[in-house]
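Pinned message: reference record for LysR family transcriptional regulator
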Amino acid sequence: MPLSSLRVFESAGRTGSFAAAAREVDLSPSAVSHAIRKLEETAGMQLFVRTTRSLELTREGRLLLEHVQRGFAEMQRGFQRALPETQVTPLRLHTAPTFATQWLMPRVAGFMQSHPGIALRFSADVNYATFDDDDHDIDVVYGPPTASRHEVIPLVVEELTPLCSPHLAARIAGVHDLYNCQLIQSEGQSVQWGGWFSANGLATPGDFALAFDRSSMAIAAAVDGLGVALESTLLAQRELASGVLVAPLMGRSTTVRYIGHYLVHPRALDPHGAAARFKRWLLAELIGSPGGPAPPEA
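Predicted structure (tokens):
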């Protein structure tokens, strides 16, 4: 019996839905239905009871699902045990540059310690991974991706607020004090100073003497006391925690909130593989980040 058919059956039996199984194994619902029919013909038994509104396993289906799941788990353990002790599973990550340097890299040691059998391979740029050439396993992108056949998960609600050094913050008692400060523009941000001033009912100052195309550079400039950056508290979490940056107007001005980063991966993700384990770790880490996890999309 082909393993591919059993994989489709396991997914459909576990999720109780041909549509959900189709998303998980990266096939069309009709292809899933066809694979189940072929499996039933080969096995000589009915595995599902289909109605217009539900999909239920038969007694034979429940028994088979139990053994198939046990078999997949045993094969996974066998492959892991068969690997040489020095061999590790590569995980190819593609990320937005600032997310990688500001948020992810400070936490990589924790992931590697808890997942010693996974070797991380990083690449970072502003392009999105297509997964068509099999160069990447998972992607963290900035800004909502265009319509995609891949799984797209909003990560966290971010807050944009003025950030600066403690020395400069001593001169900022209210929003209007920003007009007397050097403002640092982050040109890569989807919401820039103009949007923040507008949200606070104020006119945007004129030209900016300092502008960067990477938020990481704007954050570094603010740490060095060069001015006030409008940045995400998620991306500046380490600097805020250490005290080298402060948010002088947090709670005294309108904070712009938005979902900035998204996790993208092919729908057919091995639930026991390195990419799925990284995904679970990433989402768990984000639970403790400012804003918490993003609300599920309607």
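Pinned by admin. Summary line: The chain is about 40% helix and 20% strand.
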